Here is the input.
Amino acid sequence: MSLNNSATEVWEEFDIDKSIVVDDFETLVDGEVDYIDDVTYEITRKKMGVSIPHMDGCGIMLDETTRMVRLPWIKGLLVTFPFDKFIQEKCGNNHTVIDIYGQEHDVIAEGIKYIFTKSQFKLAKYYKSWDDYKEKFKENQCEACYCNIEEPYIPKSRINYQMLQTLSDMKDEEIERLIKQTVEEVESIGNDYQTTMRLLGATEYNKNPSWFQEALMIYPELFRDPYCRDVLKQTKQSLVKQAKAGRLRVNGKYLFLSPDLYAFCEWLFLGEQNPKGLLEDGEVYTSEFKNGDELACLRSPHLYREWAIKQNKRNEELDRWFGMTKCVYTSCHDLITRYVMADVDGDKLLVVKDRLLTRIAKRNMTGIVPLAYNLKKAKAEQLSSNSMYQGMTHAYTGGNIGPISNNITKVWNSGEIGEEQLNVVKWLCFQNNAVIDYAKTLWLPEPPKKISDTIKSYTKAKVPDFFIYAKDKESHQVESPNNSTMNRIAASIPDPKIKFSKSISKFD
Here is the structure.
């Protein structure tokens, strides 16, 4: 019900009569995992078929821009995909699908534009049919809304400390090369016109410029005004602080994560239970990078070693089906969503093309497989003032994930990372995901005493030194700096004085 408080725009063009809800597309994907027992905490490496709900929170639509949507009891991502063209080319005369209530729909005859999946419709079982929902939607004058729509221009982004700290064997010369772009940016503030304008937000890509930013674009000589000099000093201080906290410039972009929608249509319209799709294991597709590029696909929060290194596959056929969005599409034969612990209801991946980072990541990912564990499901319960009060109390008292992710950071920055340290991170990741769902499930696992003691031996330490910059800690609240990757990155970022360019003429 908290979705009522989402910051959204009304989707004026949406027509509820042009929509249906179908079942979720789920298959078993064979792979190797580290399975954590929820009672003994024993970690067992085993090969198994992992159940992957490929469309978990994702649906498809025609023509309109990919976006996260909100309707009463419905949430998730709608990705643009030409399923009308798929039906025309691949399905012959069969245009029918069965919705979640067992009702048949002729997608072409009914002019269907939006296909939701069951995982998006949270209260599906409380309605007799989709027609019942549509009727109540209109009766109550409900609105379809959207938030976080795909932008026509996606700027380059910065990486963060959670992703960098897991590359625990980074060498000094690799750190020097990694921070080079960020250091150059810091040193060019005030001296380089384009960098300074970009950092101040005075660019054509800024959709909502302030009056100050607009004035700068009209009259760049304002750089020399005392107020502007102060703004630049603050900008530089912020940039240095962020860099010391691991926010470094990389050749990467945050892109919506989408499954192979061609495979979904093979399953939905052709009835193929294990569709081939257009992407093989180890491949992704995004129009934002070239064919053959090696890409690191990363998601926040990044707690375990979750560097999914994939090959970008592009050709005429893939561009034809996927090229109308800027999403990163994943294969239905790949465990990538298990590696990065993502679903597809609007999650974004930081997709990075950087040879240095991918080389370091491959080295650190040797022997790493995804984690697997059973999290308990919530029991159905009658809504009452008491049950709602209890749920809210549990959410506030047991649903705080901050301390656990900080404990994971303590382990990554404790020194040499061996098998025991990796096991502690695995256990903490398991606990973290149980805590995320705690307000819904009211269930938390309890580690055996021996394992609890091992975890405490690492987590009783203070947070690492670079948290002075990452979390505004005081020097007495952090450990002394050691040689962890992030502490060395923080120590390598300079804090130079601003040099103002002589190329910008005098301020009148």
